[in-house]
Structures are given as C-alpha cells and as structure tokens.
Amino acid sequence: MTNQQQFQALREWLQTQIIGQQALTDRLLIALLADGHLLVEGAPGLAKTKAIKTLAMAIEGDFHRVQFTPDLLPADITGSDIYRPETHSFEFQPGPLFHNLILADEINRAPAKVQSALLEAMAERQISIGKQSYPLPSLFLVMATQNPIEQEGTYPLPEAQLDRFLMQVNVAYPNRDAELAILRLARQEDRNQQRATPPLRLSSDDITAARAAVQGLYLAEPVERYMVELILASRDPGRYAPELARWIEYGASPRATIALERCARAHAWLHGQDYVSPDNVQAVAHDVLRHRLLLSFEAQANGQNSDAVIQRLLEQVPVS
Length: 320
Fold this sequence. Notes:
Structural class: alpha/beta
Helix content: 40-55%
Radius of gyration: 21 Å
Oligomer: single chain
Shape: globular
Order of helices and strands: HHEHEHEEEHEEEHEHHHHEHHEHH
CATH architecture of the largest domain: 3-Layer(aba) Sandwich
Low-confidence stretches: none
CATH class of the largest domain: Alpha Beta
Strand order of the largest sheet: 2-5-8-1-9
C-alpha cells in the first residue's frame, strides 16, 4: 500500500468514526501532512476532542490532552527542573508538550505566559527552561480548541500567536442524518464496550515519506502566482473592490502564503491528485486566512465576518 493509499484509507475510516465533521477530519490530516498546527473553534460536544484522539489511535506516537485553565503555569505544560537531594543536582522533568499529538483544550482560558510557552513550542519546536533548550519530537502537532459561546474568564489570543496556526477550522452542528448516525454509533460503542480499531497505524517514517511526496507535487507557476495574488489582495484590497478596502484593516502575512501553498499541496495529494490546481487553493483558503485577517470596525458593524470577506476576495481575484 502506497503512502497516498494509506492516508486515503485513514481518511475514510476517520469519517466513519467522526460523523458529520468531514471538514475537521480532512483539516487534521492536512495539518499532519503540512507539518503545522490547528486551531479549532466550535460549541461543546462537536467531537473536537474525539477527532484528534481517534487520529492518535492510527499513529505510532504519544497523545496528551491539556486542559487550559486560568491558574495554569508555563511549567505545567513545558516541564521544569526538579531538585534531586540524593545527587544534589537539578534534573529536567519533561511536561505534556513532549508528546507527538497535543490537544490544547480551551486554549484561550490560560493567561499570556502559558500561551507564550506554547507559542515557542509551536514555532521553534523546542522548550526553554532557564539557560537550557530541549528539542521536541520531529512529529509534533498541536490542535488547540476555543469555545465561541462563553467568553467570560478568557484571554483572547494575540494576532502574532494566531498567525502561528496553520489553519483555523470552525466546527458547526451536524445535520439530521449525521445526528442519527452519531446516535447509532454511540449506541453500538456502548454495547461493544470498545471503539473500532483503525485499519492501519502510520509510523513516523510513513508520515515523513508522505510529507516528502506532498512537497514533490507539481505546482505550476500560474497557480503559484494566483496564491501570491490572493495574499497581496488582502493587503491592498482597494485594487479589487472599494468595500474590501473599508473592511480589511490588516491583511495576511508572508506566513499565510507559505501556509496556503502547503495546505493546497496536502489537499491535492489527499484527494489523489498529482498536481495542485486553483480549486485546491480555494478549498483551503478560508481555513488558512480566517484567523489572519483583521477586520475593521465598519466591517463588523455591517455584519461582515472573515469568511464573507475571504469569499469576496476569491470572487474578485482572477485565476491566472
């Protein structure tokens, strides 16, 4: 079985376990292939935690869940130096971030110091304790969640940290048919007293090979220019539509361009293509740009959100 067939089989199995959230499972796999991190926003009970736990079952790696709370300290996630009286020395005790897959649950409930510690781990793939730095595993993926309903006692993530996430995925309620299938799946799991096992387990070498295949996918220069033009349009939207100039206060950074290419490549590869098309770019554009555009007060007053503005950009920027 090729790497592409492995991921397609895993994708199909995930959709049987996480029902009605195909976009979330696809974005998890894209983040895994693109070597990035995911910010997921949705109401409680929409299988956000279950999604990454189920993915972890199919990967030969460690999974750890961290519940972010206002009293959390940086050392609670990074680890700290522990004094050993028997040797009269300090020994580093690794924290939860030294696992392969991390669920940072309700990340906006932790104060800025904890968020900064997570930011270093995500950006630099290392942890700094005092004068010493410790590398994190080569396979390292953070999925952070936010609850959009309750904002009391939360600390909004600054734009610099939001930009570190490869994508932001908004999770909605499932439809009627999916809700019925979820009910039946839960009843079946209760009867069997166990969850279904994945059809395969991906090793670190499998994931590394898949990432290399994604990076080797053919990307034509016109598609490359189209991606760049989309990002430039977010910075100078007045060239395309006057209302966009009033709605967008700050556009996307060059990190968004890199993220857009990586996600478009992963999306194409995951769907069995051997080249990247503008359709792949458009399929991931909302998730890549949603958290990177800073809208003006006028846009918010007119009821415009990031998704509507991104859709307007996609309609205005011509495909090369």
